[in-house]
Design a protein that fits this description.
Layout (H helix, E strand, L loop, with lengths): L2 H29 L7 H30 L7 H22 L10 H25 L3 H6 L2 H27 L1
Helix pairs in contact: 2-3, 3-6, 4-6
Length: about 170
């Protein structure tokens, strides 16, 4: 890894952290006192953490077996990222469908829009890398932005499905 790439990654991380801090601050200012999760939501989030962690452990065990048999399908760092993204998607999906992803007093519309924007940005950057790179491995198998964009898209679809289900129940 050359220094300009490392510098770019560091700057990118700082921008993401700053953007997240701004969004959190804006939400706190708009809503005043931060909302809390109720007991049912906390229990459901705990179960979601357990399911996501178990998913990650199973994925890593399968990956280690395949790697030991010399059947690697991703580079090591990409394989770990894929496992983490699958685990995050499982946590988010489980939490969304058990009404534990958003706080009881939160309106999910702004969060859904934010998840959609993050997904679009990562998919756009991933598509740009897929067009720019010359090898199949660099285009698809090591394209972290594309993977993060797909994970965010899965979370977005789960949130939209749950929202439609809730609206149907209300009617």
């Amino acid at each position: 890894m050359n220094t300009s790439f490392a510098f770019g990654v560091a700057i990118g991380l700082m921008v993401v952290i700053a953007a997240c801090a701004v969004v959190v601050k804006m939400v706190k200012l708009r809503n005043g006192k931060p909302a809390k999760y109720d007991e049912r939501q906390q229990a459901a989030r705990g179960k979601a953490f357990t399911v996501a962690y178990t998913t990650l452990l199973i994925y890593l065990a399968v990956w280690m077996i395949l790697n030991g048999l010399e059947i690697p399908f991703f580079a090591m760092y990409t394989s770990v990222l894929v496992g983490v993204l699958i685990s995050v998607a499982v946590f988010a999906g489980y939490s969304i469908f058990t009404d534990a992803y958003f706080r009881a007093s939160d309106k999910p519309t702004s969060w859904i829009a934010l998840i959609g924007a993050i997904s679009l940005m990562n998919l756009g950057i991933g598509a740009w890398h897929a067009i720019k790179e010359t090898t199949v491995q660099a285009r698809w198998l090591e394209n972290a932005n594309l993977m993060v964009g797909i994970m965010c898209l899965i979370v977005l679809v789960c949130a939209l499905i749950k929202r439609a289900m809730d609206r149907r129940i209300e009617d």
